[in-house]
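ARCHIVE CARD
CATEGORY: sequence design from structure
SOURCE FIELD: tokenized fold
FIELD CONTENT:
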């Protein structure tokens, strides 16, 4: 069976107003995020170069293995960036683009102070241009595939010859649902009992 990777918006930005919500949720669960010293150091230097001292002191980049289809996230005011480890399997431009996209969010918010800014508004676009990704889009898609399960068990309907594939074996006696519905008012009939196939 061939399934196409679902294309979904890959970048999201979580912004929590520190005026309305004084207590902030922790950005990452323990044990799922790994700090990346190299990428953090790059962000620190970049922020220093832009004279954003507080951001350079507090910024941290980590890998979060719980992220499924989102490439990156930025957390404010935690000043944290989380990246999807699947980026490591893609050409390195994708990683840098995602990192810069997220860093641009933090730069835009750092500069805005308490002024409200749109997540992908002019401040963010300006920061993207400074980071070398002038035409960055609010959302881009990456060819992430959902985790693929190996289907090791196959069952054949002797009536319609449909083969059902399963990750786990079926322990109960089961019949073809489509045939039971079509020919037996949805009730089980042994004539449509599925036959286990060797795979
Ligand atoms: Zn964004
Ligand atoms: Zn059938």
């Amino acid at each position: 069976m061939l399934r196409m990777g679902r294309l979904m918006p890959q970048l999201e930005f979580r912004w929590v107003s520190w005026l309305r919500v004084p207590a902030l949720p922790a950005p990452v669960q323990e044990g799922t995020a790994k700090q990346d010293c190299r990428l953090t150091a790059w962000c620190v230097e970049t922020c220093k170069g832009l004279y954003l001292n507080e951001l350079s002191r507090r910024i941290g980049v980590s890998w979060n293995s719980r992220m499924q289809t989102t490439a990156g996230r930025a957390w404010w005011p935690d000043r944290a960036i989380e990246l999807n480890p699947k980026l490591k399997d893609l050409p390195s431009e994708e990683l840098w683009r995602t990192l810069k996209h997220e860093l641009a969010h933090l730069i835009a918010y750092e500069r805005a102070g308490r002024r409200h800014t749109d997540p992908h508004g002019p401040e963010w676009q300006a920061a993207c241009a400074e980071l070398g990704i002038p035409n960055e889009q609010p959302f881009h898609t990456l060819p992430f595939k959902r985790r693929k399960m190996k289907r090791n068990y196959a069952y054949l309907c002797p009536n319609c010859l449909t083969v059902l594939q399963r990750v786990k074996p079926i322990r109960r006696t089961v019949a073809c649902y489509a045939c039971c519905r079509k020919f037996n008012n949805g009730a089980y009939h042994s004539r449509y009992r599925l036959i286990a196939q060797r795979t």
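CARD ANNOTATION: The beta strands are 11-15, 33-35, 60-64, 72-76, 80-83, 153-156, 163-166, 195-197. DSSP finds five helices and eight strands in the chain.
SHELF: design records, drawer C
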